[in-house]
Specification:
Length: 342
């Protein structure tokens, strides 16, 4: 991130860059002169960010330090970028693009596996999804869609029959909701068999909405009777970041982590993470396809349409309530993820 990066987050223009001193900083992406996106600019030798239009130069505090066309007069005191609160943690950068006074006393959720040598992590290419971010959260915490949407790769109808436990808890100052699916003697779907090679397992699978910006998936499997014995367990952690761009689109970033040193069962030339990274995009494409079609149907007025709720929708209902409360400003947090930092 040596070069400035621009993103649209929750309808706001956000500029991020890593300064010479190694700090990441974030500001409104509009040059104070004539709204030029500063993320189109460049970092000069002396470390300032130069606007590509008339050359205003800004330092890491967002102060304009130089105006090339009038070096002989004082810089206007208003020539200062609006800062955006930011936290860098566990290899990720979190920003709060809303009203700074509403940030509150909360921290972003931890993502310990992403920047940790004990784990082998791959970041997938980010996807721009033409659907509201809440649709992705709902997709993630209700995996009864694995049949039929992901049948033949990570899903089957048997999975939809696994009982679901829903857990609500407050973590890092934010209400969260988690589904837990635990099953014995489960026949793994094809992708899992390819990755780990054990066709029948005991399995513990969670999907945890840690805030409006992040959902954490943890899958732990072991030969029957061996779950809980660390030396027999295998599985993954997937962090899904769902960053709203506007009301009808979001950016979806995923990191998959497996224990370092784990090899693929069907291709020992690859690490397990590498094998997942090559095959999992087919699953993501299926979700992308479904989410965008769902979003298109919101263009029609509801009239007498209303959704039907099933047992498996309990976590989804809970997630919606949490998000509605957050959007009302009752407990806002810095939970919008914008960038992985290498
Ligand atoms: S718009 Fe940036 S210097 Fe004019
Ligand atoms: Fe899915």
């Amino acid at each position: 991130m040596d070069q400035p990066k621009g993103c649209k987050i929750a309808g706001k223009p956000v500029l991020v860059w890593r300064t010479r001193s190694g700090e990441v900083c974030s500001f409104d992406d509009r040059c104070v002169h004539k709204r030029m996106p500063l993320s189109e600019g460049r970092i000069l030798e002396d470390g300032v960010l130069e606007c590509p239009y008339h050359g205003f130069c800004y330092d890491a505090e967002g102060n304009c330090q130089r105006i090339p066309s009038q070096l002989d007069v004082p810089i206007p005191t208003k020539a200062k970028l609006r800062p955006i609160p930011l936290v860098e943690q566990d290899g990720l950068v979190w920003v709060w693009p809303g009203d700074p006074s509403m940030v509150g006393h909360v921290e972003p959720p931890c993502t310990p596996e992403i920047a940790n040598a004990d784990w082998d992590t791959h970041m997938f290419d980010p996807l721009h999804v033409k659907a509201n971010y809440v649709l992705l959260i709902e997709n993630l915490i209700d995996i009864t869609h694995f049949y039929p949407l992901h049948e033949g790769n990570i899903g089957d109808i048997e999975q939809s029959k696994i009982p679901v436990q829903v857990v609500e808890e407050t973590l890092w100052g934010v209400r969260t909701v988690k589904t837990v699916r635990e099953v014995k003697n489960y026949h793994q779907p094809p992708f899992m068999r390819d990755w780990w090679g054990v066709p029948k397992v005991d399995r513990w699978h969670t999907h945890h909405m840690l805030g409006p910006g992040l959902t954490r998936v943890e899958l732990r499997c072991a030969p029957p009777g061996k779950l809980g014995q660390v030396e027999h367990e295998f599985g993954y952690v997937i962090h899904h970041a769902h960053t709203p761009v506007d009301g009808t689109s979001h950016d979806w970033r995923l990191w998959v982590s497996t224990r370092s040193g784990t090899r693929s069962a069907s291709d020992a030339s690859k690490s397990c993470t590498q094998h997942i990274s090559e095959t999992f995009p087919a699953v993501m494409e299926e979700d992308l396809w479904a989410l965008e079609r769902q979003q298109q149907m919101f263009a029609y007025p509801d009239d007498d349409y209303s959704e039907v709720f099933l047992r498996s929708d309990q976590a989804l209902i809970c997630a919606r309530k949490i998000i509605v409360e957050l959007e009302k400003g009752n407990r806002l947090n810095k939970t919008v993820l914008i960038q992985q930092v290498a």
